[in-house]
Amino acid sequence: MTVPAVTVTDVPADSTLLDVREDDEWAAGHAPDAVHVPMSAFLERLDQVPEGPLAVVCRVGGRSAQVTAYLRGQGREAVNVTGGMLAWEAAGRPVVADGPGPAQVV
């Protein structure tokens, strides 16, 4: 199954950015308005996934493509963010950290 994808510059303005990376990746650096539901706990935390359109992101796009396919199979409106957070950071999009030190995508 091919999942619909968008580049970081084409993330729909009306969608919620859903970051499915793990806790340590999230803490090091994430998009300021993203919602974090790690892929490893996705099914247990499915109730934390916001309603409405979703743009799903991970580090490079593999995990987020799997989550996007799952969400679309559940009838949800979701697209994969091509290149993930590495592309987000490279495009100069904002990144914030939860921990000490400068924000960075790991």
Mean pLDDT: 96
Run of helices and strands: EEHEEHEH
Structural class: alpha/beta
Oligomer: single chain
State the end-to-end distance.
Answer: 28 Å
Shape: globular
InterPro entries: GlpE_sulfurtransferase, Rhodanese-like_dom, Rhodanese-like_dom_sf
Protein name: Rhodanese-like domain-containing protein
Domain Rhodanese: 11-97
Pfam families: Rhodanese
Question: How would the blueprint of this fold be written?
Answer:
Elements: E1 5-6, E2 16-19, H1 23-28, E3 35-36, E4 54-57, H2 62-73, E5 78-81, H3 84-90
Parallel strand pairs: 1-5, 2-3, 2-4, 4-5
Domain Rhodanese: 11-97
InterPro entries: GlpE_sulfurtransferase, Rhodanese-like_dom, Rhodanese-like_dom_sf
Protein name: Rhodanese-like domain-containing protein
In words, what does this structure look like?
This is Rhodanese-like domain-containing protein. Pfam families: Rhodanese. The chain has 106 residues and is of the alpha/beta class. 24% of the residues lie in helices and 15% in strands. It contains three helices and five strands, in the order ββαββαβα. Strands 1-5-4-2-3 form a five-stranded parallel beta sheet. Helix 2 links the parallel strand 4 and strand 5. It is globular.
